[in-house]
Amino acid sequence: MRIAIVAGGRTPERDVSLRGGHRVETALASLGHDAWTVDPAERKLVEALRERPLDLCWLALHGKEGEDGTVQRLLDLEHVAYVGTRALDCELTFDKVLAKDVLRRANVPTPDWVVIEGSALRDLGAGASLATAVERVGLPCVVKPSRSGSALGVAVVERAADLAAAVMAALSYSDAAIVERRVSGTEVAAGAIGDPLEQLPLVEVEPKDGVYDYGARYTAGATDYWSPARLEPATAAAASDAAARTLGTLGIRSIGRVDLIIDEDGEPWVLEANVSPGMTETSLVPMAAAAAGLSLAHLCDRVIRSMGSD
Amino acid sequence: MAEFSIDRFVDRYAARAAGMTASEVRALFAVASRPEVVSLAGGMPFVQALPNEQVAAVARTVLEEHGDVALQYGGGQGSNRLRERLVMLMAEEGIDADPDDVVVTAGAQQALDLIGKLFIDPGDVIAVEAPAYVGALTAFGAYQPRFLPIEIDDDGMLVEQLEQALVRGERPTFVYTVPNFGNPAGVTMSSERRRHLVALCREASIPIVEDNPYGLLRFEGEPERCLRTLDPENVIYLGTVSKTFSPGVRVGWALAEQSVVQRLVLGKESADLCSSNLTMLMAEEWFSDEARWRGTLAGLVDTYRSRRDVMLDALEEHLPDVGTWTHPGGGFYVWVTVPDWLDTKALLAAAVERQVAYVPGTAFYPDGRGADQMRLAFCYPTEARIREGVARLGSLIHDETELYRSLRG
Fold it and tell me: Distance between CA atoms of B307 and B310, rounded to whole angstroms?
């Protein structure tokens, strides 16, 4: 097949996207596909896609435009087939404000949260509600941008006095901040590929510094990973079940990842889901595939084949 | 169950490699280097101003007339003729030096590394300005010192703070300073402070490392005397042609006592045998024509002066109530301090979103300070881009101020 990998873009995850995209390109080429990379920050995407006939796009973009449905809608308009989740479901999944609400309605466990919108602060005096946010969610809490990835702009807040600064930092990345109850426990990621989606073994994430932040994610050796996760079978099954319901509820297709935390009682809590999981050398889905005996090429092959059923 | 070994050497790295991690700021700089972003971040010399034809002629001369040397290994110290040229450059700033006391390095950056290698044992105390040149902090940092940050004001390092530290019993292995138009703050050490620093260090037998990349990029006023001229025996002086000619040729140097020079040469040889003969010859040839290098340098200084003026005007226009900043008389940088509730590291994402970039202040401190500061470089962007960039920054900080007020209820 002729496959254009769309990677790069203008978000803070540009570098991560290019690295992952390059690995996907190499994997697809090793399968005999004609694969090449298009970087929308270097070339106008529509122009670049029109000038070379293609069968499929692999979207390796991260962050706004890549994961929020923008590129997907454009490809729909252009009648270009692409790997992964449809536009509306991307929009839903990428925006944690929407996704958490939808998950809660579907009875998928996700930690309590409140939303602080930048515009509500500016125009509606929402600053006065900050204290209420702390009361509702409790301390410590996690403050994160509603629409961003790779833990960028995420902070753990221990003291109420630090909340304002954390909200400002999160709003630097997005137009709304989520203030979420901090669940402590074991972090796991559930990757899934194919159509219908098939879950890969859970990956347990154990950052050496305790926090799975940007540095812990992308510095080789800064985090220990275990797959399958070192969980009791019943706990692992509950986590996989929560992940499966998340993927189904959010309409994720062909490839995706759900990040969860297992609390001290063994209960899984869904933190977020990703329609364009990282594909770098330190990323979780390729690791989960390896635990299942699948090379990156196998993984890509499985994903591409699932597109045939469209 | 398998533990995934992403990095099979992870338990083998030396302790000094611990700080070498991926960072959010680096991720943002990958976007900040996009052409639509006005980058006030990088301190790149405006090499477009170099006369291309003349540089090409220099390269041609080197290859045609000295090809057998240019393409061969050289001595670790650098050729005598190049060192004579560098001595001539130092004479511009009043330094009387012997070419034998000079060792040519791959930019002054390599000299910083070699000095670290030569002087720093783990745990040694190194006194640095706060804020200090980030490249020195990382070069020295690899040798695992403890940094002793000495604050600065508009007259450079607060030498009395160093004096107090010595009274407290601190014994730095050396003091590192960029006394002229420093990076990042753009300030210049006053003559009084220079004399005080030199006397203090002489008295306490603490060597001074004087790093002077920007001295010849003076926009106005009279030069201060180099520390080296005040105490040649106790000052190791570092220079570079990166700002007066080209950073691409990687020619810097250290001037020191023979005992130090000998060790630096051995350190240099063990690091890379020798610098590139090809580019060292280019630098030597470039500085052999006085009218050419002086004319080019004067043009560069004019360009940088205008850009500095534009940046200061733009700051006056767009950040009048929300920031204070330094007024450099030369060099590349303006150092901006914003209200202490702003975190310039967190703000960088929003800045890049608005297509302007800077370097967050925390990069320049060894102890986590500087969250309310940022470095703006005026050397590379055009005047129009500087105006636009500062305007974007101003509107961002204005909006953040409103946001902060609303968060306060």
Answer: 5
